Amino acid sequence: MFLKRKAPAIAACLVAAILAIAFGIAPHGFYRDANLLLGNKAYWFPFLDTDTVLSAVRCLRQDVDAYVFNPCDPQLRVFTYSPLWMAMTVMPVTEAWVPWVGLSWVVLFLGSLFLLPAARGREAQVIMIASTASSASVYAMERGNNDLVIFALVSLAAVLTIRRLALRRVGYGLVLLAGLLKYYPLGAMAIALREKPRRFLVITAVSIAVTALAALATWSDLVRVLRSIPIGQFYTDMFGSKSVGLTMVELFGAPRWVDPLVRLSLSLAALALGLRIGLGQRLHADLARLTPRERSFLLVGALMCCSCYFSAQNIGYRAINLILVMPALTALIAVTSRPIYRWITGAALALLWTGAWRMVWEDGLMASTGQFDALRYVALFVRDLLWWAVIPALLGAVVALLRDAPLPGRAFTLLRRATSGR
């Protein structure tokens, strides 16, 4: 019974084990080929992004300013994560730490997958296995990116914040820690809106105070980090609300002002659609049929996905946040007969496997036809279309899940009355 309920997590563990064995057998042959099958072009050594953090630590310990120039990094990448990571400079970090720290982050991620709500039925099980063992998961694990740590923190928070008050406080602390380490998870602190108004205000005040203290303590480095956050070009694997406008500027030669205008227009349209979906009775009634655990993971996952999508451009591995919403989406397929849930789940699954199908598209179809640029642009258009289909649905889920909470419930009631003309 345990194996059946935890099959998605076990599947991800098996994929990680296969890749580890592949690296041990042939790090530049079998390992790279195994990654390619899952849509990931592996670097010549695993945990490259783990070394993004650890290389900066090594340089700073040698009085080299890694925020300006980082010769300790194999790709000379300056440090662009939260300065709080540099608390590790008190440790005797060396290059030998990279595989062990990277492996520990992978273990944290794999362990957090065991916290996911159990799938409802065989179809849901298959979808969940395909989600946890997706190309986005492999990408994140192979790079050893600290988003693995963030995923583990918010997953545990999703479990704790539906328990008694003492555990909920720990859960909010974990989300706050995730936000301080990577910024965009701060948006997930909206889960505290489920609390009574007075308690929510206390949580908010404490969170703001802690965030302000962390910002003040690292201010000079924080300013430099925020200025150095990379902005990718439209044809890379980076996704976000900026992608469409950037495509129009770089591909079609549109004026620079088109980028923010398109981004704002699409974002407002997504928000309006999300509000309409969330304030309707159908989704609200369907979500009521889910378990508290399924609803909690849906709320945390939707907030994480929307926060990263609207706040910045994101490298492909950050799509792992979609895994958090998959138990609820597959449960909605099981308990209702509405085709829309199947479509949204399919779109989310396609996004988790973007690396794989883009690689097949580019290395297969494009190579056989010779239409490299045109087909690459079509693939990117499909990817962005999928995201703009999923995001309003996730916004709608957030609204529907919070509309009965004390504080947002009052605001949503007024908004619903205003839009209905009553």
From TrEMBL:
Entry keyword set: Membrane, Transmembrane, Transmembrane helix
Residue spans crossing the bilayer: 97-119, 148-166, 172-193, 200-219, 257-275, 296-312, 318-336, 343-361, 385-402
Protein name: DUF2029 domain-containing protein
Keyword NAD appears in the UniProt entry: no
Origin: domain of life: Bacteria
Keyword Membrane in annotation: yes
